[in-house]
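Take one protein record:
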Amino acid sequence: MDELADLLGEELELPNIQPKDKDNITTVKYKYSGIRPTGPDSLIHRKRTYKQALKRQVMMGQYSQKNPIIIPNRDDRRYRSWKEQILPETNAVIIYMMDVSGSMGQEQKELVRLESFWIDAWLRKQYDGIDRRFIIHDAVAKEVDSETFFTTRESGGTIISSAYKLCLEIIDTDYDPSAWNIYAFHFSDGDNWSGKDTQLCMSLLSEQMLPLLNMFCYGQVESEYGSGQFIRDLENRFQSKEDRLITSRIENKEKILDSIKDFLGKGH
């Protein structure tokens, strides 16, 4: 996956992501960087033990070139030692949201699946640990596993705000924004139930979601049944005011790389 991420970064000239300041969140790692005369048998350093025994036998006149047998004793044993390294913790969570109403067919879901794969590859390259959460919605939102996310299709209408509310609940319950880098990706064909719900979405984004997120990305997939209005509403409200909110049109598979560059090209 690291090699794939490197290829993606080279192809799209993606900048490395600059995580939120995590100086106050740390993790301990152990690095074996020294040698000491005591320790458990599991950490014995055989080469250094052999060299110590050879040195001792030479100094004591016990070494014979004709019969070069080296027999370490207990005092010759050498063991690996370790040092604690206190490192800043850089964890991230990706919250994927997708419209699964009747206008979102299998072709649209395949575009989302392919794009999500490459987004995962790049973000895993940038962070020590990645959580992934999945939300599907039509008129009602619910959290699901990844397989359900990419295969479910419903027949109801679309209320986008239901997904944003559930996203906020997940963040509030599991992901303290001071300790996590949080990315939200929403994919839809641009239909929403009503202009009133669209206005609610704008309020949820500006007042509650964006202050918590590294980035909010909205990808609009092409569908013959979708109006495509939601991306225009987002761009009218945020495009020149908020660089953490990024929109992209995903018309077909050939546009996936362009969309990924739209989303990840700013290095948030």
Observations:
- The helical segments are 2-12, 46-59, 106-126, 146-151, 161-174, 195-209, 229-238, 256-264.
